[in-house]
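Tutorial handout. Part one gives the primary structure; part two gives the three-dimensional structure as C-alpha cells.
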Amino acid sequence: MGWQFNGREAVYLQIAARLRSDILMGKYPPDTQIPSVRTLAFEAAVNPNTMQRALAHLEFEGILYSKGTIGRFVTWDTQVLQAARKKMHREYVRKWLSEAEMIGMSTEELIYYIREEDDSNE
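Part two.
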C-alpha cells in the first residue's frame, strides 16, 4: 500500500505518525531494527532527508534509539511504548470528538453510536 500525505501537516510528521502507529501495533516489535532511511524513503517516495527527520523525531520521543552505524531500533522500554500508545488513543478520541461536534453530535451521542456499532459487530 502506498503512502499518502495530506497538505495540512508537515510530511515528516505524517511519516513519524505512521511509523509510530506501525510500531505500537506490533509491525516492529521492541528491540528490533527498523528498515534503513533509504529503504523507508523509497517505500514512502520521499527524500531521504525527510525520512531522516521523521526518524529523528521518533528518537526524540524515545520510541526509537540508534546503534551508531548499525541502524535504528525500537525501544524495549515498555513504559515509553505504553505512554505513546495512550497518547495515540487520546489523539484519536480528540479527533472523533471534534468531528462529532462539527456535525452537531454530543459526546453522549457519540458514545451511544460507538457502543451500538460495537454491539452490532459481535
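Part three, for discussion. The mean pLDDT is 93. The two ends are 28 Å apart (CA to CA).
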